[in-house]
Amino acid sequence: MAPAERKKVLHKLADLIEKNALELAVLGVRDNGTELNMAIKAESGSAAGTFRYYAEALDKVYGEIAPTDPNFLGMIHKEPVGVVGAIVPWNFPLMIGSWKLAPALAMGNSVILKPAETASLSLLKLAELASEAGLPDGVLNVVTGQGSVVGEAIALSMDVDILVFTGSGGVGRRLLEYSARSNMKRCYLELGGKSPNLIFADAPNLDEAAKVSAMGIFRNSGQVCVSGSRLLIEASIHDDFVAQVAKYAAALKVGDPLDLGNDVGAVNSLTQLQGNLGFIDSAHADGNTIYLGGNRILEDTGGYYMEPTIVTDVKPTDRLAQEEVFGPVLGVLPFSSDDEAIALANNSIYGLAGGVWTSNLSRAHKMIRGIRTGVVHVNTYGGPDNTVPLGGVKQSGNGHDKSLHAMEKYVDLKTTWIKL
């Protein structure tokens, strides 16, 4: 399809997402427990914006003419890779699904999208809207089912040209194995994190830092890939800052995610809740202190809810400092110097995101250079838009979603060499 026609379809799809924003958000909330206020913005709103961004970007991608011997013409073409296999998680299925779909479709590919077993409703609705927007039949296919069946079939298929995935490291490793066993398809993996959030005594506003830090881990019950789950605090302000974060955390109202009066919704599943509570058991075993929370609540509702939880006296080698919880559990560690802060921040197999709070410009740049993550927030946490990439280093994966750089995954380069 000509780029101008692709543009029209993606803009129409963005229009339909906006028109059906509340329905899409509610479908997602029923699946994954995200609080509705957040889902409307982070799911429907983000998805519409993502499709508009790549609709506008797609006809700005050009081939190249190489500066070579004047007796030859060297041309570099950018072609669609073909069939994209996309596997997305349950925490923000519409947002993350759109990060994969929009640039892949913009570049002229077809997509087979597998939602998580526990969160497929909003993406099935998106497929309906895509058809209504004029996307040709077969270009987008949403296939539901167990990862061990459907995901494996997509990953092993000789007809799928690349895989894009957001999820756990264990599944990411299996996808790499399936690629090797099939057609050596490229795999782009975003595998989560254990993101450090560094608070220095000279932060411009410690009260704001405490409030944002609380929301940086407790929104969506901690089920966010970039959650600031390791809070590293300069020793001189440690006790006061923990108390301030706890004040904001304790004030958060946890409950029915469809109730607009609630601040935090549900944990996705009983399995996830049990995993979260297992980290509390580990904290006790490691000699950590449960400063706030640590319990399942609202069990009489039949839902899976957990208190915002703060754990102090965490040592760098403890489980809570090393493993991703993916729940509303914050581990706190003190530091005494810039070098110790960097060492603690990097003491992880992950490298997705991080945060730094300081008024010292030199220190901020030192932290940005020193912390090995794909994203570093300074005096804020969360919120980067489509203009900047999201991707990790180390065992947080490879490749990038969002920004113009995401489009690079979905094209192949072809060289033409012509003798004149």
UniProtKB/TrEMBL annotation:
InterPro entries: Ald_DH/histidinol_DH, Ald_DH_C, Ald_DH_CS_GLU, Ald_DH_N, Aldehyde_DH_dom
Alphabetized GO MF terms: oxidoreductase activity, acting on the aldehyde or oxo group of donors, NAD or NADP as acceptor
Keywords assigned: Oxidoreductase
Cited PROSITE patterns: ALDEHYDE_DEHYDR_GLU
Record carries keyword Oxidoreductase: yes
Active site per the UniProt annotation: 190
Domain Aldehyde dehydrogenase per the UniProt entry, residue ranges: 1-415
Family: Belongs to the aldehyde dehydrogenase family.
Name under which the protein is recorded: Gamma-glutamyl-gamma-aminobutyraldehyde dehydrogenase
Species per Swiss-Prot/TrEMBL record: Shimia gijangensis
